[in-house]
Amino acid sequence: MSTPEPISAKNNTTSELLHISEAILHAICSHDEEALSSYLAADFVLMSGASRQDRASFLEGVGTADFKTLQAGFEAIEVECWGDTAVVAGVQRVEVEHGPGSIVSRVGFTDVFVQEQGRWLLRVVVSTELPGAV
């Protein structure tokens, strides 16, 4: 049986993972492959519906995406930690420019982070487009 983390350590880890999640969203929205790659584990995988992308194809897709982000953020976000593994789950909302107007996407996500050599890295993302996107 593992010993629970002290509350202060848990709060620090939660804060760090929330900060990393914001940085990842910012890197995706700004098409910053270099910044994004620094947060991804070598064996990263994104699963969305029947689609599956590895690290290289995900980074390439972010770098070549043809959209301009108008707004991005989290409608909800929660963090749970177990030693060197953590889950960040929630709903992200992104509004992108589309022709003369905009499109809003709401995505439910579960991110699995692992701690490697003292750094939290994103290993797995499971995401689902939610109703309410306009």
CATH class, named Alpha Beta
Strand order of the largest sheet: 2-1-6-5-4-3
**Poorly predicted parts:** none
How many structurally independent domains?
A: 1
Helix content: 25-40%
- How many beta strands in the DSSP annotation? 6
SS class: alpha+beta
For the termini, the CA-CA separation is: 47 Å
CATH topology grouping = Nuclear Transport Factor 2, Chain: A
CATH architecture: Roll
Question: In a few lines, what is going on in this structure?
Answer:
The protein is an alpha+beta fold and 134 residues long.
Description:
It is a single chain. The protein is α+β, with helices and mostly antiparallel strands and 134 residues long. The protein has one domain (7-129): Roll (Nuclear Transport Factor 2, Chain: A). The protein is built from 3 helices and 6 strands. It has helices spanning 7-29, 33-37, 55-64; strands at 40-48, 51-54, 69-82, 85-98, 101-116, 119-129. A 6-stranded mixed beta sheet has the order 2-1-6-5-4-3. A hairpin with a 2-residue loop joins strand 3 (69-82) and strand 4. The longest helix is centred in the first third of the chain and has 23 residues, at 7-29. It is globular. The model has no long low-confidence stretch (mean pLDDT 90).
